[in-house]
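Entry 12.
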Amino acid sequence: MSVSAPIKNIDFVENILSDSANRTDFQSLRAHGSKGLLTTPFPTLRDEYWKYTRVSGLLKKEFKSSQIANSSISKETIRLTENQTRLVFVNGFLNSNLSVFPTEKGISAHAISTDSDLESKVNSFPTNWENEQEAFTLLNEASFTDGIRIEIAKNQKIESPIFLVHITVGENVAVAQRNFIKLNEGSEATFISVFEGDNNLSFSNHFNSILVDENAKLHWFENHQDGEKANVVGTSIAHQKSNSEISIGAYVFGGKMIRKNFYISVLGQNCETMANGSYILKDQQIADFRVIVDHKAAHCNSNQTFKGVMSDKATGVFNGKIYVRKDSQLINAFQTNRNILLSDDANAYSRPQLEIYADDVKCSHGSTIGQLDEDALFYMMARGIRRTEAEKMLVSAFVADAMDNVNYTAFKELVLENVANKSANF
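Predicted 3D structure (tokens):
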């Protein structure tokens, strides 16, 4: 599948698309992505939602898909996923040998690469937010190699988490994966995505399309411990129907550049929506979050809490927005972003925003950027605690409420351990 387009980054696109030239599945979706790339440029610093994250250097590199038969999972991930459903993707391809497929009643899971009639089954899944055209999303449409379709049956509560493990291995590897997740009426499930990889240069482009039906509950958590040269763009789009709950938590520790997009359209009344996250960064790492909760129905609550800690020349970005549409009355929506800078060269950019077209609502947003409390550090050091240990304790306490919604203890402990380990190396 080739694109001949008047765009600046044609070599970047052509290299990634070269391995999908012979794909015969999802033809209309792939055609839409390829056509969109003809007229949709990749973002620059002049684009409002990318103004703090430069991707021009990334777009000059050459990345190609690479399917690897033999790979391994880290010991930490093996312990975390022991005796649980574990779907492992290596360079974007489902690896059956490393995976543990679900046996619990009420879960249906099919790999995209083996389901020949899948496109007709996912026509109702969202592909964008408000028809927004974004080059990386279009590139995923045109180039994705594999993914998973998971459906939770009506009124089924899945007790154990479903793990999606993403491993990236090799030099100049391109990863393009697409997942379809559906929770039917009255169901409940927890999905935990774990990202890890080697220290080679790579580019990953993930897309999750999610449907949460009436009275269903989705818990969705991510842990990024990518390699030091990993570049990741991850986009999740969810449609939420009445009386349902969505709880998201995204936690970034590894990687060179991690961009996370979350778009949640609240389509029915009496919904609960929570989106939390934290990013602990050093060296020249970049973590960039764009989070939109779009209230299109009345009587709903939403809450966003994101915490960042940056040292050295690292950059953390939070770009959040709450929409309250006309006639979406009795909405309670809150948004908080707090950041700590541990060096003079670290950066934090925070843009919490409200766009409200109804009058009977309670909405607020807040943002702070500061440093660790020197009085607290002095107090702890005066009682025999070393400065590095005191800093680690204060950072852990600072980000703790960004994981209040994590409902799986072992994963919460892993995130807290990653916070402590990263803080100890500042």
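Annotation: Helices lie at 10-17, 27-37, 75-81, 135-143, 374-382, 387-399, 409-424. DSSP finds seven helices and 19 strands in the chain.
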